Amino acid sequence: MTEEPDGGEGLPVLTTGEEVERALIQNGVREVLTVHPSVRSRQGPLLRALAESGCAVWEIDAESPSYEMREQLAGFSCRRLVIGSRRRGSAGKRALDVAVSGALLLLVSPLLLVCAVALRLSGGPGVVFRQERIGKDGKPFTLLKFRTHRPVDAHEAATRWSVANEHQMPWLCRFLRRTSLDELLQLWNVLRGDMSLVGPRPERPYFVAKFSQTYPGYAARHRMRTGITGLAQINGLRGDTSIEDRCRFDNAYIDNWSLWQDFCILLRTAAALVRPTGS
C-alpha cells in the first residue's frame, strides 16, 4: 500500500481505503508489513483500520533500526505494532493522566496565577506561549507553556533549536525555565488528551520532518502519546542532547511500557525537580 502509485511494474498498488479493504477480504489477509517507519505518521489512520480489522501489523526498518526488535522476517529485525485501543492498559494510562493532571491543576492553580501575574508585570501581555507540536500518529496539536522568551519572528520560533540569547533572559524567565515551572501549563494538554504525563517529548513539525529523515526510529516515537516527561528525560536527555539517544530511550519505553514504569518515571521526575538543571 502506498500514497503514490509508483510501485514496480506488475505489482498491484493500493491507494485508497476501499481498495485496501477489498484486498483484505479477497485475499484473506491476516498480517500486514509496513516498511520505512518515517512514513507511518501519514499512514496512521490506515494502519489503525487494518489493526481494527483483525490484521497483525508488523514494522520493519531495513536500513538501520536503532531500537530493540525481537522478531526476524527475511533476515531483517521487525516488531509487531500495537495500534490504538489494542494496547493493553491504555485505558489505565489515560485514567492516570486524567486523575493526576486534574488534581495537579487544582493544587498548583495558585502557583500558576502567581507565575502569570509576575510574567505580565515584568514582560507585558502575552504570558501564555502557544506552539504547534506533533503528537500521536503524527497529528499536530497546540502545546501550552508560560512565555519565557519572545522569538524574533515565526520562522525563528519554528526552526531555531535553542533560544536566541537565552543567557540574556530576565531572571524570572531563567528561573521558570530552570525549575521547569514554565511547563506546568502542559497539564492542561494532558487533561485534554493532547499529551500524556509520560511519553516521548513532542517536537515542532520542522524538526520532526528533519529528525525522521536523519535518525532511524525517530518517527516510531509517535506511536504513543507524547508526554511532559519520559524515560529519556530522567536519564539526562533534555535540551541540547543526542537525538539518536532519545530515539533509543523513547522506543525502549514504548516497547516495554507498563503503568508501573510510568509511576517510576513520575517519581524520578519529581525527585529531579528538587535539583533542577533547566530544559
UniProtKB/TrEMBL annotation:
<feature type="domain" description="Bacterial sugar transferase">
    <location>
        <begin position="93"/>
        <end position="274"/>
    </location>
</feature>
<feature type="transmembrane region" description="Helical">
    <location>
        <begin position="95"/>
        <end position="119"/>
    </location>
</feature>
<dbReference type="Pfam" id="PF02397">
    <property type="entry name" value="Bac_transf"/>
</dbReference>
<keyword id="KW-1133">Transmembrane helix</keyword>
<protein>
    <submittedName>
        <fullName>Undecaprenyl-phosphate glucose phosphotransferase</fullName>
    </submittedName>
</protein>
<keyword id="KW-0812">Transmembrane</keyword>
<comment type="similarity">
    <text>Belongs to the bacterial sugar transferase family.</text>
</comment>
<dbReference type="GO" id="GO:0016780">
    <property type="term" value="F:phosphotransferase activity, for other substituted phosphate groups"/>
</dbReference>
<dbReference type="InterPro" id="IPR003362">
    <property type="entry name" value="Bact_transf"/>
</dbReference>
<keyword id="KW-0472">Membrane</keyword>
